[in-house]
Amino acid sequence: MLTFDIKTKNLLPPHVQEITAKADFVLYFYNGIFLSNESKISKHASLTVQPVVSTPTSQNRRGAFVRVAKPDNISSKIVTIHMYDNALSETESLALPISSHNTYFFDKHSRAEIFEAHIAKNTIECMVKNATDFVLDQGAQVIAAQVILSDLGAIVENQVKSQQKENSYLQLMTCSLGGKAIRNDISFDLSAQGVSTDHISLNIAGNSSNIINSTVINHEVESTKSEQICKNIVQGSAHIVFNGRLIIAQDAQKSDAKQSVQSLILSDSASVDVQPQLEIFADDVKAAHGATVGQIDAEELFYLQSRGISRELAEKMISQGFQHELMSKVKSPFVKQLINSCMQGAEL
Amino acid sequence: MLKISDLHVRVDGKDVLKGLNFNVKAGEVHAIMGPNGSGKSTLSKVIAGYPGYEIISGSIQYEINGNYQNLSELEPDIRAKEGIFLAFQYPVEVPGVSNLIFLRSAFNAICKHHGIAEMSEDKFTKFVQEKAKLVEMSDEFFERSVNEGFSGGEKKRNEILQMAVLSPRLALLDETDSGLDIDALKIVASGVNKMRAPDRAVVLVTHYQRLLNFIVPDYVHVLAGGRIVRSGGRELAIELEQKGYNAYL
To answer: What order do you get walking across the sheet with A286-295 strand by strand?
Structure first.
């Protein structure tokens, strides 16, 4: 039996525990091990939430299995938090990647707010592999966020997939903060009419971090809608890559797709590579995209300084202002609060 | 409080101020008038520490704790902390930063510099609400991003609100009257007038005499060709209004 105290481990960003008190379900994992005492699992008529732990077939695939059934007037709040450090290294080899797999099913017309976090702290040569699936049945409405908060000792490979049925809506914010390397492969399948998907991507890299995002938004049928907005903030000698593929298939007439990628470079040795990639095979569609790369505006900086704000704080305020547009789009105050508290816990 | 001697300033390779002399004492209100391109805005911005303005020669001395200090050695935020305030001709929009957080960060930074305890969030909000009445600004401005989506008049009022909150010793108002209709002008002027105090100096930079009907200056100066070429009292502004700047070009 693993003895574990979240507070003394000090892996969680401030306030996360208080905020998750409002959740219906909270699942905690530590180096891939489910923490039953810390988690909150209650019986609920319309929800199945269970940890997937070392069964013979899922030895290396631990994580949350969530099924939100029945239309419910109340939106279910579900939190999955994976924490990683090197505490097990003496007894168990961490040279192998710690793997997790989280699956979220949403039945017809169900509603949910999902927050998933991967927090790697005090790590040395730690490797984390995660896969997360969102499967939405007809008319399901889901607001979700996945935050990866990592120190420079960890490499995180993360794969996110969504599948959506008719008239369902998914808003997913993916947020990568720090890390020796974080690689996100994110794909959205818009394969039924009336499907709408919003992807909000925030990537903040400092020191010598590397964040790579490879996203695919695939409009396969007509009358599907997507909006992708990505912001990158890079400082130190960090590097961020964003490859955003947007595919509108020949059959996907009347589709509406927007993509915007904005990057803010805060130091001379930091860099970004941004590659929007639009592949449009249908002729009656709306598709807009734009990409900008910039530095802190000198006029804004002087304006704040001229009011007594130090250069350092002014830069921080401007860069937080840059993120603000994304945060204001998150449609669940609960999810937003958790994202905010993870950002406060980020040492960038 | 402020002593500028033989100041030469170069902007983008061009000499803009060419041997300017200008002195301000506490309690005084000065108006600096002059034709377009004479260096009026450059003067106020160089005092506030605008980056990229190169001081070729001469000095700007400012009194801090009874001693005169060379301003060019101080970062813009330190100048502000020591009581210099520039109301911008074109107030800058800062997306995503709420007006209230901006004001509070500035206010607290100045308090901290002087070893004064910071104000609590609630107390500060009440304090700002009180000051906002001076320029007839409603609470809804507090949560909006700094100057973003503000009309020209709202931006200028926001400048005066900041001035009222930060309570500077030397206020530089750069073309605060430009783009204001007569009602907004009266609001802004009354905000400035309420801040006139024996320990505070105000420098108004303006094209037009109109503002000076509402904020009556003690001294009027004509800035032309990068130098102050004539100084006088209130009557000089009226003369300029009638005769224009041609005599100084």
So the answer is: A33-34, A25-30, A76-84, A111-120, A141-150, A169-178, A196-205, A225-234, A256-265, A286-295
With cut-offs at 50, 70 and 90, classify the pLDDT of residue B180. Answer: confident
User: How many domains is chain A built from?
Assistant: 1
Strand order in the sheet with A210-219: A47-52, A63-68, A98-106, A126-136, A154-164, A181-190, A210-219, A239-248, A271-280
**All domains of chain B in start order, with CATH:** 2-90+152-248 (3.40.50.300)
pTM to 2 decimal places: 0.87
What domain range is A308 assigned to?
Answer: 6-344
Rounded distance between C-alpha atoms, residue A150 and residue A302, angstroms = 33
What are the pLDDT digits (tens) for B100-142? Answer: 999 999 999 999 999 999 999 999 999 999 999 988 888 888 9
Residue ranges in chain A modelled with pLDDT below 70? 1-4, 7-8, 45-46, 52-61, 71-73, 87-96, 347-348
Assess A42–B contact: CB distance below 8 Å, yes or no. Answer: no
288-327 in chain A: CB under 8 A from chain B: 297-300, 302-311, 313-314, 317-318, 320-325
CB-based contacts of A4, cutoff 8 Å, min separation 6: A30, A35, A37, A38
* Cβ neighbours of B210 (radius 10 Å): 15
Confidence check on the interface: ipTM exceeds 0.90, yes or no: yes
B94–A322 C-beta distance less than 8 A: no
Residue B106 to residue A307, Cβ atoms within 8 A: yes
Exposure pattern of B62-97 as b/e (b: 16+ CB <10 Å)? bbbeeeebebbebebbbbbbbbbbbbbbbbbbbbbb
pLDDT at site A30: 87
Residue A260 maps to a domain: yes
Q: How far is B248 from chain A (nearest CA, A)?
A: 32
Backbone φ, ψ for residue A279 (5° rounding): -120, 100
Does A1 reside within a domain? no
